[in-house]
Amino acid sequence: MAKSLFEELGGRYERQGDYLIPCLSVPAEEEQPIGIWGQRHMNYLKQYHKVTYTNLFTNGRLNAYLVDVDRQAQERFERLIEGMKQTQDITEQLKAENALEWTGKMNNIRACARKIVYDEIIYA
Fold first, then answer.
1. Which of 6, 48, 80, 94 has its CA 20 to 30 A from that of 109?
2. What whole-number distance in Å separates Cα of residue 112 and Cα of residue 115?
3. 82 within a domain of the structure (yes/no)
4. Are 10 and 92 in contact (CB under 8 A)?
5. Superkingdom of the source (predicted)?
6. Cα–Cα distance between 76 and 119 in angstroms, integer?
7. Sequential DSSP letters for 46-104
């Protein structure tokens, strides 16, 4: 009997009853911790871009991709916060003089930066 394309590419079958089932496995990839940004992007891919998620997963590149997205998002988030702090003149002196005002402004900046990161990286 002629070999199938699957067998020619190195695949093998396992007999279960009267059926031959292909032995499929996902390629192993180095596990790296995925941060919150990467997890949110993964959920977005699962829900709205299933083909991209499946391709990354089956090629064994999902974890590395999500770690990279997480790193990019975290760097962008930190740069945005620093830039906004300078623009709005939020200093350590303000923190020492009026901690409540400083906290309110910092919370506002973090919320704005988070929204920008979501729009530009996570949900893009």
1. 48
2. 5
3. yes
4. no
5. Bacteria
6. 12
7. HHH-HHHHHHHHHTT-HHHHHHHHHHHHHHHHHHHHHHHHHHTT--HHHHHH-HHHHHH
Q: Give per-residue pLDDT as tens, 7-61.
A: 777 777 788 888 878 877 766 667 889 999 999 999 999 999 999 999 999 888 9
Q: Which two tokens stand for residue 66?
A: 């999500």
Is the sign of the CA dihedral 53, 58, 59, 62 positive or negative? positive
Secondary structure (3-state) at 38:
helix
Higher-pLDDT residue of 27 and 94 is: 94
Please check whether residue 59 lies inside any domain of the structure.
yes
Structure tokens at 91: 């200093």
Report the distance separating Cα 117 and Cα 57, nearest Å: 24
Specify the number of domains making up the chain.
1
Q: Are 70 and 102 in contact (CB under 8 A)?
A: no
Which residues neighbour 20 within 8 Å (Cβ) at sequence distance 6 or greater? 13, 14
Report residue 51 as tokens: 């083909």
60 found inside a domain: yes
